[in-house]
Amino acid sequence: MNAFKRTSIVVLLAATLLLVTSSVVAAPGALTVPSFDALAKRATDSVNITLDSSILGLAAGFLDPSSPEDAAARDVISGLKGIYVRSYTFADDFAYPEAEVDMIRKQLSAPGWQRLVQVRNSKDHGNVDIYISTDQGRANGLAIIASEPREFTIVNIVGSIDLQKLHRIEGKFGIPNLSPTVTK
Hints:
The chain is an alpha+beta fold and 184 residues long. Helices cover 30% and strands 31% of the residues.
């Protein structure tokens, strides 16, 4: 093989390695969530939503710009890089490995993450944690981890997040309604 072909192959391999390595580095505000494939098989219900920026852009195209609600949702998702939801329900108590959920919680102790809400119910063994990731005073990630004996849910929203507007996408794209409901 001549020197030019060898050099070209080496440069191509180096560029490919650089692209692969840069894509593996998580974006600010992104969590590393296990696949939970084996867990999904044991669950009675499972939800796995992965919306990256290209899918979010595509989804925004289906929103009706003449609808104020849809226009507001489009405004919120325009700065997002991803929405990731994993939710599992089981027939038995603690059928999921709590260590994996705790591993995700541990990621939230990294610099840049700040806890907004922590709820612990020792009677029902329910836990809810809501964290925000910030950089230079700007929100770039939101994480919600809710666990109970028979279910757990992880929501990770990555990108520029305006907390004042976030409620506009509740109930859309797999994001649960977080606003308290009022009962009469």
